[in-house]
Specification:
By secondary structure, this protein is of the alpha/beta class. It folds into two domains: 290 residues, no CATH class; 88 residues, D-Maltodextrin-Binding Protein, domain 2, CATH 3.40.190. The protein is built from 20 helices and seven strands. The protein has a five-stranded mixed beta sheet, sandwiched between helices. The protein has a two-stranded antiparallel sheet with strand order 1-2. β6 and β7 form a beta hairpin. α1 runs parallel beside α5 and α18 crosses α19.
Amino acid sequence: MTRPAPLLFLLAALLFFFALGNHQLQGSTEARVAGIAMQMHLDNDWVTPRLLDQPFLEKPPLSLWLDAAAIRAFGGTPWAVRLASAFAGLCSVMLLYGALRRFGRPKAIAFSAGIMLATMGSYWGNVRGVGEDALLSLGVSLALLAFYQAHKQQAAQQSAKASWSMFALGIAIATLSKGVLGLAMPGVVIFTFLVAESLIDKRFTLARWVRPALMTACGLLPLVIWLYMLYQRGGAPALTEILLTNSVGRFDGSFVEAGHYEPFYYYLGKLPEAFLPWNILVYLGLWHFRKSLANNRYLLFFTVWLLAQFLMLTLASSKRTVYLMSLTPAAAVIAAEYAFVLLERLRQRTTATGLLGMIARHRQRIAVGILGVLIAVYLGAAHWAAPRADRKLSFLPLTEQIQTLQANGQIVALYQANERTAGATVFYIQSLLKDLKTEAELMAFLGASPGNVALIARATPPPPPLQVLKRMSVGSQLYYFVTL
């Protein structure tokens, strides 16, 4: 393999960008985030994210800025709002390859880690969707890989200014994507790694702790600037909502309305699917390398990355499988390193007879064949499966029905709209519908004119005196267009 970097770039770009816009928004996250980005574009308000004109302060706005900019540049299409995640995934893959080469790892291992990251099912799916998790993963990866490089350079008494600058940039990307979680994800790894190193070396070196803390403060400056601007608009309640309610509250469970609350063993049940199709290599690699961690700081670092973040997420009250995305680069490294241990064992069996000897002699062709089949499966899913899912999951028929009613001169309003409905209507209609909050507002709106129509999401038909004009469904959610 003489030119692995260009090959990795091309394969990752193909995996992440092929047929990226051939299906509509699907799921609550895509609809919500795309709708907020569309309203940011329409209102030209780049400080306060809003959904149906109400402040939406779950997370800082980096992904929304990028999505809104893409809408402005390329139009309001699903392809445009998926670009930021896809580019973040591509950058993460190439970043991992470049970092491993700087750490002195062979090209083959660096390439394998990069392509394993790109072909992890959960990672591939998330970087092809709208949301902030791909950006969070990029920021966390950049911060941690730059930290380890700077740590090595300082130990060798070399200049580490560039590495620390990249570390601060990673902290900025992570915190502007996910707030406090963007700080905690790299922070828990660095803390655990430094503690483990101090215990192994049996000495405490203050300088190893001071520099990451100082550069973390530098990386937080963009977030602080945005928070100051948000404070000028919304005052202390806005800061409380984004820093405490939506960060600390999700971790300790005090923010009950946030949802996604699962038992502590939730992620243990997700381990069989967390890093597919490379799960077995990850878990066997962790077991295989366990005795060499004290003498191999490189493996120690990536093992700590994987386990420390997993433990922190397990302790959190709010849990979703997508939160494991920031662990995937470390999992890819462990899997790639163990894969080459197995390949070396096979190389020693090339003279053996039977099936094992045949596999050993053709091990490289078999590996390339497996990778080729896997990439073909992903491309097939992108080309055929995702558009097929539109039949049940797309919001487009629902919003087209709203536009049809509007074209006929009728006024359409939403009744107690959930986030996915609100986001989808803003994104596709590119205007704000009235959101009715109470039954009294609903009856007053419908009674004001016989042409007024309300869209209601509920499991059963609305009771009289409401009359159903049309029933539609998106996934398992039923929607009713009603009048009096």
